[in-house]
Amino acid sequence: MPKPVTPHSESPFCSPVQGAAYIGVDVRTIYRWIADHRLTAYRAGSHRIRIRKTDLEAVLTQVSE
Known about the structure:
Elements: E1 13-14, H1 16-23, H2 27-35, E2 42-44, E3 48-52, H3 53-59
Antiparallel strand pairs: 1-3, 2-3
Helix pairs in contact: 1-2
């Protein structure tokens, strides 16, 4: 049985669902960020969307106190 790919795997890319889990947001937020060009996504094949984990981390901003 193949090992499932998780956001913490060695691949620099993840799916929108994995990306949402990786940074703790709803998957609809990921799709909204892609539509708003706030997050860059890549198409793998005709239907699969992939996101770089570094791009996910870049959309997070530090909260100053």
